[in-house]
Amino acid sequence: MPQSEISGPFASVLVPYDGLEPSRAALSHALTLVQATSTLVVVTVVDDAAIISESAMSSSAYDPAPLFEAFDAQGRAMLADAASRCAAANITPVTEFLHGSPVPVILAQMKKHRCDLVVMGTHARKGVARLFLGSTTEGVLRSSTVPVLTVRSTDIVNVHPFATAVLGIDDSDASDAAVALATKLMQSFKTRLVACHAIDRP
């Protein structure tokens, strides 16, 4: 089915973008989900906390202005890169370049643009590190009021998204919400659902 004919459940999709491979993969996935009537919001956040902290702890005169300018230039270059990738897919995104702590800024933009999906990149870690998605992704996952799709740079981008999905079911409110979203995916993307319920035996 051509992308223009897809009628998906997501009216506004947000992608936090830092120019690294996981966020590029997240943007690529998001581009397969948006429709002609959808809004794609790309957000780049510059976290000034480290610069401010270094300035406060310095025993000598320290002018953080050059670093702020360098971070701004880098952030705007990232956002321009994202816009270029969207243009290649014939999509014009809403772009936001902001300063602040990434998690609350992302959540605020999610509410501002009334997003119903957040697509975020995460690193494919091994060993103990694989238990942690990263502070920003983890923070958004815990606090978001809408679904969050995490994407690794190694994930395959499919032009027919959500062809098959595994749905874990239990008796929680979160499971009910997952079922509701899965139903929308079935209706919009003809998703084949594999429902499962696991029992943890001692």
Question: Your description of this structure?
Answer:
The chain is of the alpha/beta class and 202 residues long. The protein folds into two domains: 3-157, Rossmann fold (3-Layer(aba) Sandwich); 162-202, no CATH class. Helices cover 41% and strands 19% of the residues. The protein is built from six helices and seven strands. The strands form two sheets. It has a five-stranded parallel beta sheet with strand order 3-2-1-4-5, sandwiched between helices. A two-stranded parallel sheet has the order 6-7. Helix 4 (102-112) packs across helix 5. The chain is globular. The protein starts with 11 loop residues before the first strand and ends in a 6-residue tail after the last strand.
